[in-house]
Amino acid sequence: MTLMADCKAGKIPEIVKLVAESEGVSPEFVRGQVASGRVVIPRNKNRSFDPIGIGQGLSTKVNANLGTSRDKADIEFELAKLKAALEAKTDAVMDLSTGGDLSAIRKVILDACPVPLGTVPIYETAIRMVENQLPMVNMNSESIFSTIEDQARMGVDFITVHCGVTRNLVRMLLEGDRLMEVVSRGGSFLIEWVHYNQAENPLYEHYDRLLELAREYELTLSLGDGLRPGTIIDATDKPQIQELVTLGELVERARKADVQSMVEGPGHIPVNQIETNVRLEKSLCKDAPFYVLGPIVTDIAPGYDHITSAIGGALAGSFGADFLCYVTRAEHLCLPDRESVWEGVMAARIAAHAADLAKGFNKAWEWDRQMSKARKKLDWEKMLSLAIDPELARKTRATIPPEKEEVCTMCGEFCALKKIGEIKA
Amino acid sequence: MTLMADCKAGKIPEIVKLVAESEGVSPEFVRGQVASGRVVIPRNKNRSFDPIGIGQGLSTKVNANLGTSRDKADIEFELAKLKAALEAKTDAVMDLSTGGDLSAIRKVILDACPVPLGTVPIYETAIRMVENQLPMVNMNSESIFSTIEDQARMGVDFITVHCGVTRNLVRMLLEGDRLMEVVSRGGSFLIEWVHYNQAENPLYEHYDRLLELAREYELTLSLGDGLRPGTIIDATDKPQIQELVTLGELVERARKADVQSMVEGPGHIPVNQIETNVRLEKSLCKDAPFYVLGPIVTDIAPGYDHITSAIGGALAGSFGADFLCYVTRAEHLCLPDRESVWEGVMAARIAAHAADLAKGFNKAWEWDRQMSKARKKLDWEKMLSLAIDPELARKTRATIPPEKEEVCTMCGEFCALKKIGEIKA
């Protein structure tokens, strides 16, 4: 019995109670949401940690992508980033390593990770080919599914699977006029495979096998958008939406098999197309949790993509996106370091919180209310400790300290809040 | 004859042609917008610089607030911030100094400032009282208007005037249940004055005198929102909207007097109330240019308010706000330094650009298109030089440099764009 099967049967497993408690909603509500597929609780049957729920009616969650690359495969460096991401209170982590001993790195990260951990197994499948001096296109169903099972056995909680990159879609893409055909690594591996082998994507053709594995290990499927736009010029175009239609069908098949699934989304979307993208996903994928990668709202700000993605994430979340993948300032430039990871998680958490305010969550509003009350009282200790990043707030205030502790150096004695206190006294 | 009078008379002054050229629109379009009050071109008759237009149909502009405080009154420090703001390409600057020799500071900043410069004259009026050991409430029409004239004579291009803080509004505010009654410094000075003197706000009572001064010096009025919400808890409440109704009336009187005017807006607004705020201003103020202060979308992120305001600014701009006042990471904590100013202008420019994409401006889309073409070609030199902050983009890329120059250390040889190039070759 999977979690979803239990919930469908009306049972309320312990994991559901824990999520309900942390969200301040009833266990019955969470049970219903999991049963219908509107909420996922990613946790491998071999893992144990305080669970989180992702989806409609629950607070917006954030994910931090970590992982080595061929140019920088340093486990200590990745562990430092993991520590930073956790201290900055990320809700989930993905290990996207593509350099070094992938299995060893995953093991180390899993052991140090008390939040849901996701991976993209096709990376490992492809890289094993390269390591064995074989062309990547020699991957086959066996190598793909055995990697997935290896990772599931190790305890991975959710996996990105680009099942929607079908043979038809690849043809449409290669015949089309997209500016940037593909920016998803996993997507590009599968496009190459499909195009070279002139065969159907194994993750689509053998989707039932994937569902079996997911059932066995209580693995949550994150249906990847291999053809997400990689520039706002391509946003909301035919390949993107065609893939989304397929992902909607795969969500329904997962639900029938009692497997938890969510749907990944862009990517690069201009501000005025974000609402459409969220509503489309919710409609085509029957309210499956929507996991957006940013989105960033312009392409011209490399070095500031924690900001371009905070804009897009806040907006997407406010329209119903459930899970925001952070984007760091290193995006489009290099692998992120510890500082970029910290700041990236903070920016994504700000976006998620802004979305939660728009979604009307009491807990979110209460935080702002407490902060505003402290401001009104000029209670600096309270303000600083309520800040999303108390250490940064303290450090910033200390750069130009005030003569009188009750105010700040922006307005000093001309503080409007101080004045109104005197007027009303 | 003021600029607006000329435009109403069907003339196309040189300044209108310059704005039209820089925006890539017809001079006749700009003339019509200025005549109707939908666009302002702030430039004092005693000043000379390349003008900018602010308002409907033109690209979204950004402003950087500078200025000393009593705790930190250092001209060199302010000049360094001005230089940073200009290098970061701010469209306008406000000198909000409240410490040191206000007149001398303004002179130095005006001389070094080739973009529109705004001030809040009530600061100087109030501070002169304090300097003369007089209570602030001893200000009167004479001292208020003589300060405005002094500043206009010096060359200030636009001034924030809190004309909407009427006696009725102050009564409503003090009898009401706002969490944070006032966070506007100028607003708080006038509230205190009105409350103590039990008299009408001179800027409202003698608004015609203000219009005369504005006509004489070609001064653009920025109708301040003294009662803007200072916490999202108070957003879109009665005092805020009551003031906006008054500002709408004052816009109409300014237009009749051939005086350019814009309207200032919040402040603190949750994501889901931003559209309402912009549409309300455009409706009540007959499409007057909307100059928003941020807005920041949550109160809990001091130290990151360049991000919370970029979210709000992008969204406000996408719905029609015309002019975004930056907010730096120092906001709510201290006076900003050079680095905060630079980053604040960049964050506001990103928001303005995201808004311009949403507004459908070709020039904005072309920038993203060029960047995306460079990315597709893996043309790093082009990508880095097209970045909004080339120096930061270069520095960031150099933190973890790639072995092969054609890619970056995020994906390395597994670059999706590299792969699709090979597939299509």
Task: Describe this protein's structure.
The structure is a homodimer of 425-residue chains. Chain A is globular. Chain A is 52% helix and 9% strand. The first copy, chain A, has 19 helices and ten strands. Chain A is an alpha/beta fold. Chain A folds into three domains: 1-36, no CATH class; 40-360, Alpha-Beta Barrel (TIM Barrel); 379-424, no CATH class. The longest helix of chain A has 22 residues, at 338-359. At the A-B interface, α9, α14, α15, α16 and α17 of A face α9, α14, α15, α16 and α17 of B.
Q: What is the strand arrangement across the widest sheet of chain A?
A: 3-4-5-6-7-8-9-10
Indicate the structural class of chain A: alpha/beta
Number of strands of chain A: 10
Largest interface: A-B, 102 and 102 residues
Per CATH, the class of the largest domain in chain A reads Alpha Beta
Shape field of chain A: globular
Distance between the termini of chain A: 65 Å
What would CATH call the architecture of the largest domain in chain A? Alpha-Beta Barrel
- Multimeric organization: homodimer
Number of discrete domains of chain A:
3
Instruction: Compute the average pLDDT of chain A.
Output: 97
Give the % helix of chain A. Answer: 40-55%
CATH topology of the largest domain in chain A: TIM Barrel
> Could you describe the largest sheet of chain A, including whether it forms a barrel?
8 strands, parallel, barrel
User: What low-confidence regions of chain A span 5 or more consecutive residues with pLDDT below 50?
Assistant: none
Q: What is the tally of helical segments of chain A?
A: 19
Radius of gyration of chain A: 22 Å
